[in-house]
Amino acid sequence: MFDPDIAPSGTLLGLLQRGRGDGTLHALAAPRAEALAALHHCVLRDPRRDWQVENRSLYYARLCRELRADLDEIEQHLFHPDDLLDTAEERTGLALSVLGHLTSYGRHDALLLLRRYAATGANWAWALDELALRDDDTGLRALGPAVLDRFPRTPEGDAELAAAARGAYEPRPWRLWADDPVHGTRVRAAQERSAFDRWQRQLRPSGPRPGWSVHDVLQWAQEEHDASPGARRSDAAARCLAAVAGPEDRPELLAAAASGPDAARAAALRHLAETGDPEVLDLIEAAATGPAPELVTQAALTAFERMRSIAALDRARLWAQRPDALGDAAAAMLACRGGQYDSGLVLAALRRTVRGEGPDAQTLWALVEGAGRLSIGCAAPVLRHIYRETSSSHLRGLAAHALAATDPSFAAGFAVECLWDCEESTRELAARQAATADSRVMDQLRRLAADPAEEAEVQTAVRSRFGPPGGGPTTA
Hints:
By secondary structure, the chain is an all-alpha fold. Helix content is 68%, strand content 0%.
């Protein structure tokens, strides 16, 4: 995850970076050169805060098709010398996904670019997965020699080949290459090795194993943390404690949770929270608010967030007004599991978080969902602000769902632009709720219904808006 440079929400570039429906509408109304410049900026400099969660590729591919964009800039980006130096998937993944969707729309030049990059590019595995979904057998078979030549015929190269075959998101190319008279023997050997390696790992799991007592588990967790601070063995230790701890071990666990070494304390806190120990909430408060290392503080907050007891909810109502991380966790718990009488606390936390941390704060995800779940009508203004300003399309989608439950103007307002949104769940919501008084709505619903790249859930929602044959569309 990283923080990209996001333009203001009122600009064309800012709208497109966020993946908002208004971005497409403004781009189609803007001068073509300006729209193409903003589009290429987004495709070549991935604007997503978390590229593994947020969608943009279909959104940008559709705009490429509408603007009849050529692929020269994408080609230059893919085959730039930086491709040899920066091999991270984030640099080229979005551009490759856009090419994949353009291939589905019949752009032969996009198909040729994907084939060329799969043969020579650093992020070849991503390009190959795109082709596996869209290319024909002849095209995929022709790529076999170029891909296999990346792996030297040495024990190390064969091991890397087996790992690549095992990690492929789409196995279709590997199955075709396994039948190749020239390369099939090597590919089949790699597939067999990857299957054997998986079986061997399951049969003989590697790694240290703690002894079979609470003391041994806590000691192992601390030793592993001291040796590798980033390994987070405290989580594994907590799972082990669930198997070995008995009532007679409670004093030792309470002592570890109160003042033990960092990793042992984190493991004990999580275990006591999961078993609902009556003293754990006081221990969590002390760990989360006192002078404790980050490992212990985060473990305390995580342990609290996972609790499901009535006692935890009662304590959350006391903590929700705190202006710190424990207050945030408490407000999030009330948003997810509280009752209607917790609406005031959730709304106050929502407003406080937006004022203090802005529209991209991680805590907002739970609070926005909670505002919708509890139907907090007074939250509509701040939800509209989050919808407009956040750079996370996932959070914007949550805000849209919350607005649908709290804002009577949603169907005639934001729901219309949501039909062009980058997130499929947001488009699905809009397809069900957008008011058809706007002439653009029916046109876009028909486009979505006819688009072969559209998700099935969205198309099902679109079809629900049309009545039986001859009955006309339903209205909102």
